[in-house]
Amino acid sequence: MFNKVAGYTAEGTASFYADRLHGHSTASGEKYDRHKLTAAHATLPFNTQVLVTNLKNGKSVVVRVNDRMARSRHNIIDLSRAAAQEVDMVREGSVTVRLTEVKKEEAEQQEQLPVVSEAEAHQIK
C-alpha cells in the first residue's frame, strides 16, 4: 500500500482515547475528535502520518499525530476511537501494533478521490 516510508518504525502496544475526552484540547491546540483518524505519540512531530498495523489481525490505518502522550513502557501510541475501530481493537482496549511513518504526500494521495465531472461520468458508461 505505502512503499516509500520515512525513517521511523516501531512495535509495541497501542491503546485508544476514552470517549469522555471528545472535544477536549490536544497538545497541538486542536480539539480531540473521536471520529477523525488521529493519534497521540510521545516524540513524533505534530502532523506526522503513521501507518498503524494491528499485528494480531493485519488491519491497518493511517493516522495523523496531533497530540502528545507521556513516554510509557506500556504504550507507544494512543489512537482515536475511529482509528481503533479501523484496526479492530476497541473490544480488547489495547493491541500490539507496528508503526511506520508515511510520507505526507503518499497519505494525501490515498485520501483524495479522483475528480470526475458528471459529463465525464456519462461518457465513461
UniProtKB/TrEMBL annotation:
E.C. code: 4.2.2.-
Keywords assigned: Cell wall biogenesis/degradation, Lyase
Domain RlpA-like protein double-psi beta-barrel per the UniProt entry, residue ranges: 9-98
Region (Disordered): 104-125
Enzyme type, top EC level: lyase
Organism domain of life: Bacteria
Entry-linked Pfam families: DPBB_1
PANTHER family in UniProt: ENDOLYTIC PEPTIDOGLYCAN TRANSGLYCOSYLASE RLPA, ENDOLYTIC PEPTIDOGLYCAN TRANSGLYCOSYLASE RLPA-RELATED
Function: Lytic transglycosylase with a strong preference for naked glycan strands that lack stem peptides.
The family this protein is said to belong to: Belongs to the RlpA family.
Protein name: Probable endolytic peptidoglycan transglycosylase RlpA
Annotated organism of origin: Pontibacter toksunensis
Phylogenetic placement of the source organism: Bacteria, Pseudomonadati, Bacteroidota, Cytophagia, Cytophagales
